[in-house]
Every structure is written in C-alpha cells, then in structure tokens.
Amino acid sequence: MNKVYVVDGARTPLLKARPEPGPFSAADLAVACARPVLLRAPFAPGEIDETIVGCVIPAPDEANIARIVSLRLGLGRHVPAYTVQRNCASGLQALASAWERIALGQAQLVLAGGTEAMSRAPIQWNPAMAGWLGGLLRARGVGARVKALARFRLGYLKPVYSLLLGLTDPLVKLSMGQTAEVLAHRFGITREQQDAYALQSHQRLAAAFDAGHMEHEVEILFDTRGNIYTEDDGLRRDTDMDKLARLKPVFDPKYGLVTSGNSSQVTDGAAMLLLAGEDAVKRHKLNVLGELLGHEWAGVDPSQMGLGPVQAVAKLLARFKLKMADLKQMELNEAFAAQVLACQAAWDSPEYARAELGFDRPLGRMDPERLNPEGGAVACGHPVGASGARLVLHLLHALRRKGGGHGVATLCIGGGQGGAMLVRTEGGAA
C-alpha cells in the first residue's frame, strides 16, 4: 500500500442557514475553497487524476456535483469525477475513497472533500399534488381537463421540506435531535451539562479565530452583493449559560433537554483537500501537511446513531494498536452536545465495552482538553456533506501547530453509522 498525504486544503467560512436560500450554491462553495488550493500548487490543474466530492443534497441542477466542481475549476474534461453520499460523513467518505485510490496505486493526485448548501435544500410538492398534476397533464379535451381541475384540493399545496425529511430516520421515525434525546436519557446527561459543553464550544472557536489559528484553514468568501465572510457566522461570542438556559427544547417540548443552543447549526459550507501519493510528492517537491493512515466504519442502532463514533474509533485504534492516550487530538463532530458527551460516557463505560464492543475493559474517554480544543459544530455549524473533510483539515493544521503526532477525526452518521480516520503529522509551520 502506498502512503497517502494531504499536501494542502482549505474551507469556506460556515454560514448559518436563514429562512431564505443562502448566497452560494454547493458548487459555488466547493469552487471557492478549492481554487486557492490549486493556485498554490506547483503543477497544472490538469495533472490531477480525479475529483471526489461528498454532498448530501445537491441542487437539481448539480447532478454529480463533483464533475461540475472539477470542470469549473479548470481541471479539464479528461479528469474524471464522482460524488459520494454517506449522510453526515460524506466529506470523510470522499477522503476515504481518495485514500484508497492512491494507496492502491491507481492515482497520485486527487482533489477530494465535501460541500453543502443546506439553506437551498429543495422544497417539493407532496405526492397528492404530484398525482393531481399528472392527471391534469394526461387529460385530453376540455371536459376531461375541467374534471381534472375540479379534483384539486387546497391540501395539495402543502409543501414537503426535503431537509426535514433528510434529518429524520425513515425506519425508526426519529429525527436526529430525538436520537440525541435518547442518548441523553441513556447516559443521564443533564441539560446543564449540555449547555456547558455548548458554551465551551463557542468560547474555544472564538479563541481560535482570535489567536489566528484558523487563518491557514479558512478562505474569505465574497458574494455578489459585496458582502465579505471571514469567519463562521454561527459563532455566538456573547452567549452564556443564562442565555442558553432560556432556550426551550426543540425535539421534545415537554420533557426534552436538547435545544437549538446545544445542537449543531443548519449550515452552508465546503472543505476541499489535495491528496498526493509518494511519487507525486517527490516529483513536484510538495510540502506535506500530514499523512492519512487509514479509516474505519461501523454500524449502530439508528435510534442511537450518535454512538457511531464509539464503535468506529474502537475499531480504528484496535487495528493500529493505539490507545486513547496516544492521540494528540480528536475531532469529534458536535452534532449535539448530548451526543459528544454520550460518546465520552460510552468510551468510559465497562458495561458498554463488554456488551457493545466486546472488550474486556473500556477504552477510556478522550482527554477533554484534547477533544475539539478549537470548538466544533455546535459553534461553527454542520454542513453535512462537508463536515468530515473539515474535521480532517482542521485536525492536520492543529496537530502540526502543536508539534505533530497522531489524531482522529470522527463523526456520527444519520441512519446509525460511525466513521473515523487516523492521521499523523510532523511538527512545523502550517
């Protein structure tokens, strides 16, 4: 197996979704952060072997969005491209697929990452409206059309929000937020603990931006109205425990603990990375940001999908014969504060280790100071197709800044899965 390196990468600022569609399409966002990466590369864009992009809800005119992004970036018609979809881990899956192509010697340079414009998720007609329209189109003659028109009911106009459907598991009939409530109940996680974690996420992200730690990672965005976006606009620098405590539960209004304040935000954003094999690194004299060592995937009960990282990380560490203490940093996607705290509790639980992991003893929780030390999705947002790539990009920069070492990027995945990727860097300037 050939070694696989990340030589460069960038992400956009993450933009919190408002009631109206955001200023950028998913393809716009991917192009915006990939373009500077290609401009920094010491080779022509056409030398890239393949483009792989994760995206969950591309627009109707963005079919195989990876190909659209590749052509817009000027990689050339000869460069193949494909899109992957693994719910929240689509961006991580894109990196994993690129890793496999290079590790197997089938490619040397791959542009991979993820993008999502959640604010532009389509609003659709319901089946009754679609059926009525079909009948109207089939009607022949004035009389048949009048009868078809007479069958119309106002209820047919009720829209179907594809984003809400996509965030609800069709088998267990629970929204992602409701699965977080399940975990909070299972592990006895209180509302105060969740709010405290959420506050910490905002404080850590704000400190990272203020210290300049994000400048090598985040590219400035400009929209057509002259607006400039320099940092994640869902970051709430002025939040505190009192403000968080005043928010009402969203997913279980009567008994719930999960609020908009201790959940990740619906967000638009993209992250794109340039991966290279050893031959490409030598041939083009590329600076290496870090090495991707491998990845693991796991399945769990969809009603407790937030525990997916527990399983995936356990498999990954076992394969590489590592312990939690060997990790310099872990980036665990903050879908919900309850979900992160539940993963920590499960890693620390002898009962969970025996019953769910088949281990004699628990892995032990990740050191809280090394878990998301620059904040996470509760503060910056969770553009589902892009988050996995964002986690890996940030982890590589953070490890390099802190002297190098091993790190893991991991996510829970809607539908009851978990994904994890192991990376390693040397110390040095990012």
UniProtKB/TrEMBL annotation:
Coiled coil: none
Organism superkingdom: Bacteria
Domain Thiolase C-terminal per the UniProt entry, residue ranges: 287-424
Gene3D superfamilies per the UniProt record, alphabetical: 3.40.47.10
Pfam families noted in UniProt: Thiolase_C, Thiolase_N
Domain (Thiolase N-terminal): residue spans on this chain: 4-278
InterPro entries associated with the record: Thiolase, Thiolase-like, Thiolase_AS, Thiolase_C, Thiolase_CS, Thiolase_N
Presence of keyword Acyltransferase: yes
Transmembrane segments: none
Family membership noted in the UniProt record: Belongs to the thiolase-like superfamily. Thiolase family.
Protein name: Acetyl-CoA acetyltransferase
